[in-house]
Amino acid sequence: MAERIIELRDISKSYGQVYALGGVNLSVDRGEVVGLIGDNGAGKSTLIKILSGVVKPTSGEILIRGKAVTGWSAARSREAGIETVFQDRALAVQQTIVRNIFMGRELTGFLGWLKVNKEIEEASRLMREIGFTSKVFTPQSIVGQLSGGERQGVAIARAIYKQAELIILDEPTTALSLTETAKVFHFVRQVRASGRSILFIGHNIHHVFDIADRFVMLDRGKVALTADRSEVKSAEDLINFMEDVAHPGGLAGLHDTGDAERAVR
Ligand SMILES: Nc1ncnc2c1ncn2[C@@H]1O[C@H](COP(=O)(O)OP(=O)(O)OP(=O)(O)O)[C@@H](O)[C@H]1O
User: Fold this and answer.
1) pLDDT band per the 50, 70, 90 thresholds, residue 265
2) Domain 4-90+164-232 sits in which CATH superfamily?
3) Mutational test site, ligand 1, from 12, 13, 17, 46, max ligand atoms within 8 Å of CB
4) What dihedral do alpha carbons 129, 135, 141, 144 form, nearest 10°?
């Protein structure tokens, strides 16, 4: 059985009167791509913030590799090998790929000299590891010249350099073309093949369906569905389920009870 990298048990988070999450259970195993889906306001961002330790849950338990953790924080999350690649990717576009990968954690030697060649070598290795092979770009290329998908690759390579075991990708394919999305999927598959795990958050259910091994759907702060890839036939199944959860009974149901009439008033 695959090692359980992280497990959230009965996690709740409230902001004053607002319940962002209520009793969420979520786990990610080694080498697994978990797709996290849900409508606006479902609680996805709150869950990411809890996983990355920047927001503390109001209640619930966090287990890392089977052991309950106390004093969960951003530092603990990093120690546990959890890295988040945010939607804006937080890359310095006027800098080179290598500078972006090592930013804040430069390889230095005696008297603090930067080990430039060593960094270039290591950046090449990381890029190869995630399948970022290019005849055009080298570690010394400027990030601003890269496409959207390739920039995701740089952010993923940086996460791996930081020893990530679980990489959280927050909307990695939003606003990307089909070709660029395919590049991101290629990186994700390489990361999975290396035995690391991915939590893939996406608004586009088709994208999540294509890449995830398991799906977790949030609805108004609760897990509405958790299903293996083999249990879901198509992205449409997921979309239909999501619509049913949001509007139980659909419009037909509303008509039956006369609610539709009241709703339009
Ligand atoms: N800092 C905060 N203070 C008060 N309420 C918050 C805060 N952060 C989130 N919420 C509320 O918690 C609920 C869940 O929000 P969250 O941002 O986690 O959802 P989401 O699924 O990420 O949505 P989106 O896809 O729109 O980003 C929402 O009702 C939101 O208004």
Assistant:
1) very low
2) P-loop containing nucleotide triphosphate hydrolases (3.40.50.300)
3) 46
4) -90
Distance CA 125, CA 48 (A): 29
Ligand 1 probe mutation, 11, 36, 45, 55, most atoms within 8 A of CB: 45
Residues with CB under 6 A from ligand 1: 15, 18, 20, 38, 40-46
Task: State whether the Cα torsion 78-88-167-136 is positive or negative.
Answer: negative
pLDDT for res 14:
96
Q: What pLDDT sits at residue 6?
A: 96
The pLDDT tens digits of the residues spanning 217-238 come to 999 999 999 999 999 999 999 9
For 105-115, the pLDDT digits (tens) are 877 777 667 77
- Cβ partners under 8 Å of residue 102, min gap 6: 119, 123, 161
Atom of ligand 1 nearest to the CA of 45: 22
- The residue type found at 201 is I
CA distances from 196 to 157, 163, 165, 220 (A): 12, 10, 5, 29
What is the CA(227)–ligand 1 centre distance, in A? 24
Q: Looking at ligand 1, which residue's alpha carbon is closest to its atom 11? A: 20
